[in-house]
Amino acid sequence: MRIAVSGSTGLIGTALVHSLRTDGHDVLRLVRHPARAGDEVSWDPLRRRVDTAGLAGCDAVVNLAGAGVGDHRWTAAYRKEIRDSRVLGNATLAEAVASLDTPPRVLLCGSAVGYYGDTGGRAVDESAPPGEGFLPGVCVEWEAAAAPARDAGIRTVYARTGLVVARGGGAWGRMFPLFKAGLGGRLGDGRQYWSFIALHDEVAALRHILDTPSLSGPVNCTAPEPLTNREITAAMGRVLKRPTLLTVPRPALRLALGDMASDVLASTRAVPRALLESGFGFAFPSIDAAITAAA
Fold this sequence. Notes:
This protein is of the alpha/beta class.
């Protein structure tokens, strides 16, 4: 297949591009500078521009671009960057692929389990409504921005990804050094559910979505059994053979993270019903297996 990927230098994008190319697929990378290589397609999502001609002949387009949620404190300016990088990016690509004489068969858009907000101990699948707050609001707009592609008859999928267990980035990229140094511990009371997924399984899930015509709309990319932060903390200590006696209290998190603390302490218990019903098999379904694979 010929596949265009945005966000190709991020944690998931890098792994996805490598996996696709290893299996012989022709991968184009959407870049925010003039194309300098044969595998590059220039785009500027904030200005709603993309080299549409560069997308011609693609069987699939994957949009994984977006400012890192945990990269900075959530000032008003950074909230806008988080939102615009996702919403405008999806809108730009959706409109571009819809305008092609021969559009791709599928537009796969990144999204997040943040869509559901704080679900407490209640498990939610793709049929659940959005939650309340900043991140659920961003996810709703993010997915809605892909409407031009869906309305044009292109299979459109929203991969609602959980916390990716990997050393190279994301939340776990920050956690591994702390836990290996014996400085890891639970956050708050540790009762909040974390929907996690091994990086290997995330890439496999995205490829499964590309190859499975029956999948459209939201698809939760999470391991089958979400666990509490307390349980994940214990698993980190168990696998890495390090103590996990420390606790970061809620007031300290709020002082350090500002408004972001509410989302760190939120409980999202998302389950991958659509993936499982479509026949997807997880290589690392348990947290111990996911940590071991990444460590």
